[in-house]
Amino acid sequence: MWEKELINLVWIVVKIIIILIPILLAVAYLTYVERRVIGYMQCRIGPNRVGFMGLLQPIADAMKLLFKEIIIPAPSNRYLFIIAPILSFAPAIFVWSVIPFSQGLVLANINAGLLFVLAATSLGVYGVLVAGWASNSKYAFFGGMRAAAQIVSYEIAMGFALVGVLLAAGSMNLTTIVEHQTGGLWHWYWLPLFPLFIVYWIAGVAETNRAPFDMAEGESEIVAGFHVEYSAIAFAVFFLAEYANMILIASLATLMFLGGWLSPFQGIPVLGPALAFVPGLIWFIAKVGFFLLLYLWIRATFPRYRYDQVMRLGWKILIPVTLVWIVVVAFMVKLNLPPWFAG
Amino acid sequence: MTIPHIIEQVVFYFSAIMVVISGIMVIAQRNPVRGALALVLAFVFSAVLWILLESEFLALALIFVYVGAVMTLFLFVVMMLDMDIEPMKRNFVRYLPIGLFISVLVLAFMIYVVAPEHFGLSKYAKPLHASAAYSNVKELGHVLYTKFVYPFELAAVLLLVAMVSAISLALPVVRERKLQNPAEQVMVKREDRIRLVNVPSEKRID
Questions:
Q1: From the list B3, B33, B137, which residue is nearest A172 (CB)?
Q2: Which among B61, B75, B137 has the least Cβ separation from residue A129?
Q3: B132 to chain A, closest Cα gap in Å
Q4: B60-63 contacts: CB < 8 A, separation 24 or more?
Q5: CATH number of this structure's domain B1-86, picked from the four choices 3.40.190.10, 1.20.1280.170, 1.20.120.1200, 1.10.10.10
Q6: Per-domain boundaries in chain B
Q7: What is the pTM of this model?
Q8: Fewer beta carbons within 10 angstroms: which end of chain A, N or C?
Q9: pLDDT digits (tens, 9 = 90+) for B107-141
């Protein structure tokens, strides 16, 4: 009896490792892709020296950061200073336990999956806040304060956008939400929930502190914001957390608005059956890749927002839009509007 | 004793002990920011206990609302305060008798209520594990919108009133405010900000 349970336990650990390693690799190579893509967008080449086409660049960077010295400022709050990067990295990683990569390909298929995701992502702000305070530096403190205010504001808009998804699917289980979108491109929720989709995406960019909402870093005003005092691997952990969060937001957008692992050609006469052999995981990765490219594209295109305008956008535009559209979604669901909500 | 059972026990005792320890840390920490962070820790471990009770909605809402939003704002304020804790500590001994009296009173109440004669297995049946299909969120929603719909709506209205009054209290009177006009800012043209002047070049003086 207990041997079976022990094997079960070991199997869970193995599954965690199987999920974790590709995510960490994806994070490492996202930094490389970002530098290359933005390089091309700005008519540069980007890193191309280390390895073939610069493909070993992330590994070289990681090595460099590992062997540098971690400098702990004397007036800093020592323990909190060390804990802060971990606090920001851990939530970015453990949320992956509920993300379904394909039909049945999920570590924990829990009923309150959406709520779990929301709760876990709301924890990420502590890393930034604690780092800003524990550094005992004015720039870091400003960065932490800005990040806290920004994330709390955009969390509301994000939460409301997800309430719309919840209403449409009638479930908080992420697998069920995807299954409700079965049947081709136009059956996905991006169409009936279009304003919420846009709001979710903007709030997602703001939540991850990415350009044009990178107020917490704001190089031109507060040097590097909350991680200005961090060096070596402590800095790298913040960096990893940011990119892991980006991939997470992209996957959530995929699951909730673009039909997760479902094929976009489902139900189309010739293309549908012809492309039915493509496994769901490939579609999922392709869609996540699209959103990640969007992240980089936005960063290369838009200048940074002014702080008061970030707040204005969050409170006075995004939240009212979501509030109105939630009512509209409720009506659509109640009227069983085809093709999304029929039956 | 199966392995999942043992894990459950370990998680329970660990979280229960951590809730108590972090609760003590909230008041024992010399630094108010660390105290607030200890409170966050207490919330997180209480959420773990609620998860063990299979009320995942309450647990996740505790994390989402209290840890994610309320405590963030609380920390925000506490971090900005330049608080000197020493003068407050001076009155510690003076207020100790009252504090001890209240804590003994609360402890006595707790022991009275939770003691076996009022809260034992003989009084309440052992809660059974719900099946995998059981959705705590659905059950809670069902009860909130049927049985408790009036109290629920009243609480919502109360919160709205509190929010509006808080904003109206914090907002300074109109003549003291300097407002921006975002539309004007967005619509600004190059000609509004830049004036090109043609400065005639001067003659060289030899």
A1: B137
A2: B75
A3: 9
A4: B60/A112, B60/A115, B60/A116, B60/A118, B60/A119, B61/A115, B61/A119, B63/A119, B63/A120, B63/A122, B63/A123
A5: 1.20.120.1200
A6: 1-86, 87-129, 134-164
A7: 0.85
A8: C
A9: 999 888 888 777 777 777 777 777 767 777 888 88
